[in-house]
Amino acid sequence: QKEVEQNSGPLSVPEGAIASLNCTYSDRVSQSFFWYRQYSGKSPELIMSIYSNGDKEDGRFTAQLNKASQYVSLLIRDSQPSDSATYLCAVTTGGYQKVTFGTGTKLQVIP
Amino acid sequence: GAGVSQTPSNKVTEKGKYVELRCDPISGHTALYWYRQSLGQGPEFLIYFQGTGAADDSGLPNDRFFAVRPEGSVSTLKIQRTERGDSAVYLCASSLFRNGYTGELFFGEGSRLTVL
Asked: How do A105-110 and A11-14 pair as beta strands?
């Protein structure tokens, strides 16, 4: 079982719709959870971090964490073509400091 | 500089050669990470430094790979006897360590390694 699992996609949504990206993780003691965005040919950039159960909102982005289900998600409201990218879920594993990434979900926002 | 700096941005080498990749983190960031990313894959963890010491090197694939951070700032990833399978983008990231947590990583632009 992979430590961090994501559907590779592509996930296609029309402009203005809500995009929902999902991630599961295997390490029950994971404490910190992150979403990174990676444009083609570029490096990952952090867009959201979440540390406790529930929802965290930042602009058009909402991260959701459920530690009991070992599940973290990212919602993007009012999706824009500029949101088209690969979204990487990252989790601290093996303690508090090692950061493990999933394979990423490719999002395509159709104008 | 303001961001994480990686050199070289591109490196082409022949199978069997030795390669060094350098990372200069954001000033004041005590945590430094190396990852390797192949096309269509997520970043693969290699090693993590807290200060000068390697806190976790469990991701180094074999003993051809070695990394150092002698003064707690700049780090060098060293690959001996390169193989074609080592071809990838090598990403460096740095992070503040606060309240017992890291993970908010700031990445450099990467070093693309091609082994012919």
From this structure: parallel
* Length of chain B measured in residues: 116
What residues are paired with B65 via a beta bridge? B79
Burial of B41 (0-12, 13-18, 19+ CB in 10 A): middle
Pairing of strands B10-13, B5-7: unpaired
Contact B55 A97 (CB under 8 A): yes
Suggest the residue from B96, B105, B106 to mutate for an interface test with chain A (most A CBs closer than 10 A).
Answer: B105
Select the residue of B40, B48, B106 nearest A98 (Cβ to Cβ): B48
pLDDT per residue, tens digit, chain A (111 aa), is 788 999 988 999 999 999 999 999 998 888 889 999 999 999 999 999 998 999 999 999 999 999 999 999 999 999 999 999 999 999 987 666 889 999 999 999 999
DSSP string, A14-70: ETTSPEEEEEEE--TT---EEEEEE-TTS--EEEEEE-SSEEEEETTEEEEEETTTT
**pLDDT digits 0-9 by tens, B39-98:** 999 999 999 998 888 889 999 999 999 999 999 899 999 999 999 999 999 999 999 876
Nearest to A109 by CA among A28, A21, A31, A29: A21
